[in-house]
Give the backbone structure.
Amino acid sequence: MNSVKITQLASRLEKISVFSGQAVSWLALLMVLTTFSIVVLRYGFGLGWIAMQESVIYMYALVFLIGIPYTLKHDGHVRVDIFYCNISPRKKAWVNLLGTIFLLFPMAFFIAWISWDYVATSWALKEQSGEAGGLPGVYLLKSSILIMTLLLFIQGLSQLLSYIVFLFHPAAYDKEKTQNNTKDNMSSGAL
């Protein structure tokens, strides 16, 4: 596979993280509105529903878990970088490539492996809320752990491919990034 095809594949994989991250970002607004409603209903009218309160927990979990790959794509995770900030882009690419292979992929695999029985048991029981009037489908919420690991692996693969092209085919990397930036600017009306 040539470097152009690798870069195109990386770009397509990255779009999955972008789509899922932007989709769950709307849950943050819904979570704020739901929390506001809970407070107004409880203290203004003396009303409250467990399912409504649990829905905030569900939304928070989805924003957090599905947002992890999106945050990785935008390099938004906390990084303690005493040395990283002062090294060349090429050395950063090597650090990121090795970190993806030896840290990100094993961690995502471990989380998926350790969570599999937890999620499968929940599905087998069709687990529901332990609270009277709570939300059904706790098993669906628990499935978001496995979805997160899949999305994290996809985003990691996208970045790994980009690092490989950057390190071993820099001219192709620069050309593809220039084309992508031009497309982004045209679609946003910046040109």
